[in-house]
Amino acid sequence: MSFAGKYQTETQEGYDEFCKLLGIPDDIIEKGRDYKLVTEVTQNGDEFAWTMHYPANHSVTNKFVLGKECDMETIGGKKFKATVTMEGGKLSVRFPNYHHTSEISGGKLIEISTATSAKGPVVLKRVSKKI
């Protein structure tokens, strides 16, 4: 499954609730709500470079090899170790406060991040089109 390409957010669901659960300040949530996030993925076999371009010219790039522990970084700059796996055509990784999956479906990048609150799971679903 090839993920290579450049994608721009088309729709997202659960953004506010998910961001609030992660402790992102309201002013940052407001700025990002309608921002068309650009995700750029390069892939060479099991090796990936995954770059997220955020507002104010802020970008985060995580490089990883499937099945191998690597150093990663959150948008907030928190560094952590994780292992990205491929399960049924979906990339899967556990961030410090949530679980994230990515897949290509119908030519679109579908990303689902799931965190747990006292009320149960909180899900952010982002669908991005290739640009």
From TrEMBL:
Family: Belongs to the calycin superfamily. Fatty-acid binding protein (FABP) family.
Annotated compartments: Cytoplasm
SUPFAM superfamilies documented for this protein: Lipocalins
InterPro entries: Calycin (IPR012674), Fatty_acid-bd (IPR000463), ILBP (IPR031259)
Entry GO CC: cytoplasm
Protein name in the entry: Gastrotropin-like
Organism classification: Eukaryota, Metazoa, Chordata, Craniata, Vertebrata
Keyword Cytoplasm in record: yes
